[in-house]
Every structure is written in C-alpha cells, then in structure tokens.
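Morning. Coffee machine broken again, so started the prediction first thing and wrote up yesterday's gels while waiting. Chain of 132 residues, entered below exactly as on the submission form.
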Amino acid sequence: MIQPVATGLYAAKAPLEWAVIGNGILFTAQIPIGADGAVVEGGIEAQTRQTLENLRHTLECAGGGMSSLTQVLIYVTRRDDLATVNRLYAEAVSAPYPNRAAIIVSGFAREEMLVEMVAYAALQETIDGEAC
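Came back before lunch.
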C-alpha cells in the first residue's frame, strides 16, 4: 500500500502525486516549478535550484531530509548543463552521498524545462498525511 505525501506543492494537472511512500521508501519526481505552477525562468541554475528546493521541501514533508536520499536520477536536456547541476547538487547534498545517475534527454513534457530529478529516500517513520 502506498501513502501520498501532502507537500502543498502546486497541484499537478496530470494524474500523479508529487511523492508517495511505500514500505518506508519515498518515491518522488521533482521539476523546476514555482508555487504558481510555472516553470521558473533563469536558465539551468534557477531551474536546478528550484528543483532541489522542491525536493528538500518534499523530503521534509515526508519526515526526512536530504540526508535520507538513497538514489537520485538527474535528467537534463544539455550535457553542458551538468557542471552547473553538479555544483548546485553538491551544495544541497552532503556525504555520504546517495547513489546517482545523470542522463541526457531530448526533452520533457513541459518544453521549457531543462532539468528533472527522480529521487528515492529511506524514511524512519510514517507521516500523518497533513500538508506541510
């Protein structure tokens, strides 16, 4: 059985939850959208910062934190953007680092997106289901 995480992030129009927990594992995919649901402007740096902030917020809502991460899959549309993503990722995530992969893709469902992160985290306790 899965339990949705009430993140308070912008309600997606697609049939999805921003994060769910199953067997003590958090499953989430985060994109660079702000509170208004729009993809943030400002290029890869702004989009990566927003994606990491959405990830941090989601982890906290689930009762964890960035140190709870076990694996992160990073998708970018341009290989040259990986240096910026790596720099910002290193500011947000500390050792011991989660397992990680970086994948170059041709694009995302939202054309203006440059980055997306899929993450898994190990959680210690069950959440109460209220929005954070």
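The chain has a mean pLDDT of 94. Going to sketch it on the whiteboard this afternoon.
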